[in-house]
Write a structure and sequence with these properties.
heterodimer, A: mainly alpha, MetI-like fold, 10 helices, about 75% helix, B: alpha/beta, Rossmann fold, four-stranded antiparallel β-sheet, globular, binds adenosine-5'-triphosphate, binds magnesium ion, transport (chain A), MetI-like (chain A), transmembrane helix (chain A), transmembrane (chain A)
Chain lengths: ~270, ~325
Amino acid sequence: MPVGAQRKPRKRKKTRGNAFYLGISAVSVGAVLTLWWIASRNAWVNPLFLPTPADVWYAFADIAKEGYKGSSLPAHIAASLRRIFIALAFIFVTAVPLGIICGRIRWIQAIFDPFVEFYRPLPPLAYYSLLVLWFGIQDTSKIVLLFLSGFAPLFIAAVHSSRRVPVDRFNGAKSLGAKGWRLYVYVIFPSCLPDLLTGLRTTVGITYATLVAAEMIAAVSGVGWMVLDASKYLRSDIIYAAIIIMGVIAILIDTALRLLIKRVSPWVES
Amino acid sequence: MTVEGTSASMPPRGAWTSAPSVDRSSVTTETEGAEGAEGIKLDGISLTYNQRRSPVHALKGIDLDLASDDFVCVLGPSGCGKSSLLNIIAGYLEPTEGSVWIGGTEHIEPNAQVGVVFQHANLFPWLTIAKNIEFGVKMARLPREERKRRVDAYLELVGLSHAGSQLPHQLSGGMKQRAAIARTLATDPSIVLMDEPFSALDALTRESMQLHLRSIWQKTRKCIFFITHDVDEALLLGRRIVIMHPNPGCIVQDFMNPVFVPEGEVSFSDARAGKEFVELRRFLIAQIAVGSESGSEIENVSRSGADKRTALL
Ligand SMILES: Nc1ncnc2c1ncn2[C@@H]1O[C@H](COP(=O)(O)OP(=O)(O)OP(=O)(O)O)[C@@H](O)[C@H]1O
Ligand SMILES: [Mg+2]
């Protein structure tokens, strides 16, 4: 150090634990809840639009204990999750192989591309009435609707990730004796898996968003149906309770997927 | 020094002490003895990259015979077609003319007969080191016990017995590269191609990898086709040295390495200090520089590259 030079105090990058940020989130949620509580308590807003947190809690407790319109709360949740998971399972077993093959083989992609590109931007509700016409008003049409709304994002993720498998990795596998379907099963699919699970997160989001629409027609169960049914009777407490239930379930599913991604691809920097 | 089963000729002794002049027509490529069942033969390989404006003649008339236990180091200025040649031997690229023969059959598509070690280890990131090494053996549908035996043997060969259950991203660069070498050797290829496999490693790791590779070669006697930018590396490892020049890429020198230590413990620092080694290195650097000057478009780039190389030594 030259004579007389002053060493500046070095600014250290602060590293904080996750707990710090979780704390901030907790405080901000608490603040909003408090605001809600104050606003509804003092009737700043018509209670029809904004019930008090207590009302919502009682509505929830009531549904949890007594059920809603003939089914218990777990039965409603199960009905919705069943539709979603059946749809997701079908999406995964079709969109992934098809997308991967389309990503690797141009002429096969040329067959499917026009259809996917055409229906992808359509709002699911636009073709829902057709699906009801074809598949009836039972669960089948709902599952098909969820399937169609969630298929495209995963399909596209599969196409892109299979196209992006590093050339060296692909060539290297061939030089180790892999060929034909074994390249797909042992090299391309695992290469794509992290991207596929990320795509699955998008797909889950979209199917979930379509759920309420799916349960609009001829349903007697499901969380989405609960919201719609309660709105007919202006039971905003139940609407709020149902929405919060839906939100929490969504967060749980997404967290599970995130953990799964971390688990199957620990080498991917997140 | 004569080694049976190779076609290479030595440069005349002392030739490299005088100013080098390259006469491409004088390069000896007569073939004899290497056409055994195990040998690898490159027959009149030419490659033209079809680009819209001007086709790039990357390789022209490459003939090369490799014995089944050769260790060939390929040197040449950047852009002289070394990687292109390797890709052709591997079967990744189709030559515009010529063909690759392995053990009497033409090699057209990549398969386990020709192993490849890349500059970056290129391991499957979702498989443990042991599973990576097992990959090729599994593809060959060998029975389970045999697979296990091979995995253990090759882990041991590259000194990674303790790391078998790790995932690649948990390993250092040198360890990854050793795992990649083990994975390639485990399928028992006829030839192993390496494209600057150690150039991404730091100097110390590189030297230890060179020693490793050297001892692996002594144990397995696999044919190794080793591309490098590093003249020292070529002199220390190569039993035979091939020099390529660009525009179009061709072989201008092909000789048995006179400072190669054929057997036993090798001390690289001793080898480097030898007078012949130093002279040979100077000769090779000059040879490579001549090649890079003969390029027209790439002249400046590669000349500065050659200068840097000289300056470093
Ligand atoms: N895909 C390609 N398309 C067109 N030209 C290419 C392609 N790949 C390589 N070339 C050209 O072919 C020539 C040889 O390239 P190559 O990569 O084989 O050289 P190299 O000797 O491996 O160089 P380096 O030492 O820098 O790795 C170069 O002139 C390069 O520009
Ligand atoms: Mg190269």
